[in-house]
């Protein structure tokens, strides 16, 4: 009986994790491309604000996880650095959604393992087995093929998407280096608690300079579309939920399970986005994305076997 309850609990976590991840991605695309809300930096700031507020309530008030206190100024500066890199990755991803279809955005995002392996080698000189590196060839080749077959290819959007993917990988490697000592390690929820306010403070002046009319346009959209504020609030809450559920799924399963589920999540997001937004796809594009996903699966398996 207990086993059935545990299975149901984990299954529920995975379903909610899928829903929040795919939901925030699709809502981002809807707001930025179909709704006239063309402010990716301000949108990211809304996400980070929700993460800061909800992290505080989750950890400090409701004690979902024990709070981990900062122990030194050095640790704070390391976390601030991670926060800025994290900001860059989220902003880049949101900017790319203005120009690219979600399906192609996910195909490019699937190359994260390539950049992670590259940065790990450049920054730590950590080498993997040759089989592991060989598995990265289809990861990159698939995106090259998908790019050639993408009807709505946009160079700037592609550059921003690649930059966001690289920044995401850079952050994960940097996190391993900066917070490697036992005394400085933080779980992902506590890290988000400290990174989010820093991200908001960093994004505020950038949004004011680069998106000066954001408040006027947002208010106008709010008057014209009665669900505008509700969508923005829901989008921001889902951004936090995706982080929280990512942590909980990892805690109750394993990092390997999360990786497998993540690969499947990308494929599900692609299918739903095509059905929802009706963006044109080609056989070449689908083939390229499939090759990339298979390469990611092979890379994960190679890393597991040749540690």
From TrEMBL:
Query: What are the TM regions of this chain, as residue ranges?
Result: 7-27, 39-64, 76-97, 103-123, 130-147, 153-170, 191-209, 229-249, 256-277, 283-302
- Keyword line: Membrane, Transmembrane, Transmembrane helix
- Topology with regard to the membrane? Multi-pass membrane protein
> DNA repair: is it a keyword of this entry?
no
Instruction: List where in the cell it is found.
Output: Membrane
Pfam families reported for this sequence: TPT
What GO molecular function annotation could you give as one example from this UniProt entry? antiporter activity
GO terms for cellular component: Golgi apparatus; membrane
Q: Under which name does UniProt file this protein? A: Sugar phosphate transporter domain-containing protein
- Species, as recorded: Cucumis sativus
